[in-house]
Amino acid sequence: MERRNLGSSDIKITPIIMGTWQAGKKMWVGIEDTETIAAIKNAFDAGITTVDTAEVYGEGHSERIVAAALSQVRDRVVYASKVFSNHLKYDLVIEACEGSLKNLKTDYIDLYQIHWPAGSWNSEIVPISETMKALNKLKEDGKIRAIGVSNFSKSQLEEASQYGRIDSLQPPYSLFWRQVEKDARDYCVENNISIWAYSPLAQGLLTGKFGKDHQFAEGDHRAKNKLFSIKENYHRVQIALDRLRPIAAKNDCSLAQLSLAWLIAQPQTNAIVGARNTKQVLANAKAAEVKLSSEDLAEIDAIGRTVTDYLDDNPVMWNF
């Protein structure tokens, strides 16, 4: 798989990134550790050498699963993790990073990200200058190699950039969720900041596997996703999927691969894709091989807008 630079750093990442929110188990159902470990190992074997996790995913369980899968090949993979919004004071950032290093069984994290801005999820408001001071110290000490932010708006990204080099932004971004295009994307392109798109398959919608009357199991957070839970949105999604299917067939790929191929063809953009098992991982990896024509890219773009043009500007995907 091709490699790309992470922002202006010398870190090389893959355009398809292994996402591990589900590995933490919390807010997901039907996740088995053995399957997840096998999936992460097989992702590496398939060329996906970049993996994204966070301290909050299962309170460190996801990070420990990543370590169980990849410790033996640590020198050939890129680890990205995140500090949560309740740990953004100077000492708490340092402490959280030490916890993640321990969970990941490593002495450095390649990309360390602020998961949500201070104040999110009823957390304490901490000046970004204080948080960035801690991150810069971790970078100076070799505990982290690059700094990123997640769920930041353009204005928040600009403010953080005053206090140190930001090499990535991680927003929700898919064919069916595109607020970042109106806000921070141009700034990222102008300042060589890599976009790490999370939920690039709109939490499974872009696989086409959810029918008109799908019901989620008890405890599955996707039931609160606005694309699923708002009837009008879900109806538009189903129509759009029907229009995408012939384009996927023409390119000899699945709907999911088509959607990922479109996404990683966007400026500065890479896709964080979760997987429950090896079959899903191998399918995700093949998306990097799908090369879409300019005509296909434009048509897919237009189809996506039949869903996104009706969404509000709130970047949060869920009604928690």
What do these coordinates show?
This protein is an alpha/beta fold. The chain has a single domain, classed as Alpha-Beta Barrel (TIM Barrel), CATH 3.20.20.100. 40% of the residues lie in helices and 13% in strands. The chain is built from 12 helices and 10 strands. The mean pLDDT is 94.
Structure keywords:
320 residues, alpha/beta, TIM Barrel, eight-stranded parallel β-barrel, 10 strands, 13% strand, globular
Give me the count of strands: 10
Number of helices: 12
What Rg is obtained from the alpha carbons, in whole angstroms?
19 Å
CATH topology: TIM Barrel
Largest beta sheet: what is the strand line-up?
3-4-5-6-7-8-9-10
Main structural class: alpha/beta
Strand content: 5-15%
How many domains make up the 3D coordinates? 1
So, the CATH homologous superfamily? NADP-dependent oxidoreductase domain
First CA to last CA: what distance?
Answer: 37 Å
The share of residues in helices is: 25-40%
